[in-house]
Amino acid sequence: MLDVIPWLSIIVFWPLVGMLIIMFVKMPDARIKRFAIGWSLVPAILSVALYVAYLNGRVGGIQFEEFVPWIPSVGIDYHLGVDGISLLLIVMATFMTTIALVYSARVIDTRVREYFALFLLLETGMLGVFVALDLILFYVFWEIGLVPMYFLIGVWGGARREYAAIKFFLYTLAGSVLMLLGMIAVYFNTGTFDIMRAIEIGPFKDNLPLQIAVFIGFFLAFAIKVPMWPFHTWLPDAHVEAPTAGSVVLAAVLLKLGTYGFVRISLPMFPEAFNRLAIFIAILAFIGIVYGALVAMAQWDFKKLIAYSSVNHMGYVMLGLAAAAFLVPQIGTASGEDRTAIINTATAGINGAVYEMLAHGFITGALFLMVGLIYDQRTHTRDLKRFGGMFATLPRYAGFLIFFAMASLGLPGLMGFVAEFLIFRGSFPAGGTMTLIALFAVLGIIFTAAFFLWKVIQLILLGPPNPEWSEGEHKLQDLNRSESWILGPIAACTLVFGIIPGILLVAINASSLNILAQATQVQVALLNLFK
Amino acid sequence: MLAQYALLIPLFPLLAFFIIVVLGANRNKRLSSNIAIGALVLSGILSYLIFIQAIGVGPDRVLEAAVNGEAPWAMLWNWTPIGTSTFQVGTYLDPVAILMLVMVTTVGLMIFIYAQGYMGIQDPAHTDPKYARFFAFLSLFACGMLGFVISPNLVQSLVFWEIMGLCSFLLIGFWFDNPKPTFRKGKWTTVGVENSNAAKKAFLTTRVGDVGLFLGIILLSMLAGTTQWNVLYHQEAINRLQEITVFGIPALVVVCLLIFMGAVGKSAQFPLHVWLPDAMAGPTPVSAMIHAATMVAAGVFLIARTYPLFAAAGGEGHSSVPLLVVAVIGAFTAIFAATIGFAQGDIKRILAFSTISQLGLMFMALGTGAWVAGVFHMLTHAFFKALLFLGSGSVIHGMEHGLHHGHGESHATTGAAHHEAEMEDAEDEAPRAEPGLKSWEAEADDPQSVYNMGGLRHRMPVTFWTYMMGVLALTGIPIWAGFWSKDEILAHAYETGQYGFWLAGGLATLMTAFYMARQVFLVFFGQPRTDAATHASESVRSMTIPLIVLAVFSTFVGLVGVPDVVGPLAFGGWLHHWLALVPTTGLGPEAVAEAVAPTSLNALVAGAALTSALIGWALGYLLYGRKPMAVGGRDPLSRIPGVWPLLWNKYWIDELYSHTFIAASLWLSRIFNIFDQQVIDRVVNFFGRLTRVFARAFRWFDTHIVDGVVNYLGLGTREVGQWMRLLQTGIVQNYLLVVFVAIVLIAFLLRR
Fold first, then answer.
1. What's the pTM value of the predicted model, to 2 decimals?
2. What ipTM did this prediction achieve?
3. Which one, of B388, B251, B228, lies nearest residue B312 by Cα?
């Protein structure tokens, strides 16, 4: 009975319906806020339930598939489905969207109706990308997500919001046009827009130069979205100008669309091309890791610093994926114990990349909230030179900030560590050049620790309290109960998934093996391995 | 069977942390410290019960069970799948881990009890405002160490290892808000900022080592498929590992060196020793915690734990390169740090360099193959170094009391109160001019400078006598704990023919005796050199009782490891029987078998060690004891030109690092930031503008060319039409003529 209900469609379009209701039903602002929050809880709860159901099904495979021919004349279908990876990204995305809405309700007072309507539209776009199993559908959702974010930055943003919004929009659009070309190329080669069918057929299997060309089309779209170095400069601008909740969702979910594209499309569909470019991509990832951390260290704007830390963290994700792609051909040629070891290493790379996507979503999302809580509601400055000593005056804020900073720099016991460990587990033993790249990428871990300790924890929290904020009319209040309740759930997730990663890795691991199997075209042997 | 509940041991303090921080017990200070102490007492009871149980079962049986992964000595649970394998967590209790549990809970508990008095609970008006937070962090610290000790694999070890790193960060920088102005590195800043700098330095320096450990763990888990002790401690696993090479180097060598990097950072060995002296910025109980029970001991324990890998790294018939590296770094650090210890003025800083030096000895022991001796020295050192730190805290307290008494101000009795008073003082004190101090002079009101002390044995008798027990233990005087463990290290080096290391150890012993004698004579003997010292007073009971307990341990704990030959005096070499089998189980390399062989008391070695200690004491007496330093006097050593500034400035290694690594990182960070804005972003914007230029060009093209063509066509059609009109004459003959011409033309064109 439950099988026939199109759960994924419900989750994806639920926010869209909410948007229509907000737009066409007259409600006072306060009601709109409450409604949007309550409405967004439904997909959040549903997706968690769906994850539980997923674990009871064929773990690692695609479940909850929906298939309706859409434009049959050119073979475009409405094809949805999720595996462990996309489902967990949906769980994270819906959860963080709700958090972002709760925060927005506190600070957004202009054009409330439009804001919340756009936010829900954004959610539909993001979720759609994660469930789409048809290239054109993927593309449509990809573009849907773009528009509301453009307006969120452009209307509710900071001083240079228009520049930032247009930069964000055009940059991403430029990438996605190339992706569309790539999709059309895949169609002409395989005769289908269906992602799973195309992977089975293997586009341009025997024409490597063309495969690489098409791969690059997708690569540019995804790399801009991730963003990989050197396509990252839209990110700090967009983050700095975006309203806090926009930054939260941008960091937590929108960036993941790019890395998700690599996992869902690039790796299984163009394994050869990805493999040929793996070292090149790993080098870009390495530059992103070290460069991102160092540039973050040079920032004096709290929010910009966190934005650059995203460049650093997304570099880890790409390193893990590149390492997996690097190992793909060896899986085919090796045998026996060696083969198992290589499969374990490659899987660790994908697992780590996916885990970092989730961890970064929670942790960096929370860090942007930390910026908002101090900037929007307290000091109205993000200048790191003007803080100090808040560990004494704002102990609760300080506790959360230290917690999330430590999580972000990869303190063991928290989520970020699991991700980093798996990524380096996947890349450092990969052999050859990849080992060297991973070896140097470890420097990023030190630099990340350095800027979090110095710029974030020391300058904001330690030292004697800055009298500007500790006394007189601007004396700051510590987080109140409701503010703690915004951060508490994220902190809980970061801790629980850091201590008991098995809850998530059960599904991620099986799905990663599946993707690896698709990439290596040795499904049977591989799938038997983990049964 | 209690051993299966070993997981509770680190969980109790963790729970205490959560109750204090999250559930809000922090509103009641005394409740907070009671919770923290209560939790540690529970951990301690459980540890002792497990210890007793293990004695009943017998060490060999315990070890065998642990190595084979059998409950209750090894508890393993599936945690998460990785690729095609499964990762396990749990607890692992072998004899050495059990011994560590007992040591950590005992020493830890003394530190906790002491900390109540130190942070001023007895005087509500002067209790540290962050008192509850302090005990929460201490609890988390204890959790880190206890969890580390019982981890069944390297990954879980790393988790707890880093928890300790976090706690050391939080606790070293605990007094981050002290606004007292101070002059450092050519500019005015506050003590609080300096404290937070020290915290940051500790975390980052150890992190450099941790990165090595991190890579080592990853490499090992790739090569061996696991990092579980119960797999790695088996001969087959070791044999397999021995065969693998990475880039032409035996893989085990790489793994071991990477793991050792972690230990170098955590145990403050050269060249990553720079953080530990600065870590003095934390309240004294924290120093005791870091230097004795936790943190630095963790580094030694890590090497002791992974010893089978180190021993096997040489392969058949070759000496192990990693072990040699461990021994050389250890021996070098032991002497290097001791020399710096000669020329420090801060009572805690002297002890800090002493710790670094002693840790060097422990690593030397492990590196030369004296496994039991290394562990033994770590255990005895934990007791007497905790004692010395707590004792120095008591001295500082007494001095602070004297200072305020001398000033005729409030009778502050606690460090916390002093800290508070400083905060009050500082508000009306504008930064003064650059102080014109010479390198050996102390600020007049510095309660930690040994130059400001003198004659304290009369003012603080309990502190003095207990402190002396610690000093005797540290300097290696027979009966006291340090003698036995240090002697064993030297004896092993001597008997295995490693004379270089034997001499290095002997030299370190001499130096240790000298700098401790210097400290003791400057602090406790002679006449008080300042008002503060004159008016110093003994500390409260909650501080002195832990001192007494630790003094008893420091005196007698060494007897557990006394060689058999001494007979009735000792427990018949109990420690060696207890630890005998640890790293040897199932292992071939002779180096390992040697490591645990109980060393008999070698009269020559023992005599030489004692002689060198006595020479050190004698030198100390000659320079500092015979003619005590007078008020305003000068440190005799400071008369040595060239050497003194070098030692006082710790060989300028801090300066070297800040001008190379740190400066380079900052420079790179700035350059990259400029590059980001001026190059990458410019390029992006250039493309943006290019697009706009194209857009304009297209618009022009559109209006003038595309539209133009269309318009032109439209226009053309009209003109053609007008021209054609001329043809349309209405005369049929004309039309026919045209048709005819056209047909002829076509026929002509189509002809073959």
1. 0.88
2. 0.86
3. B251
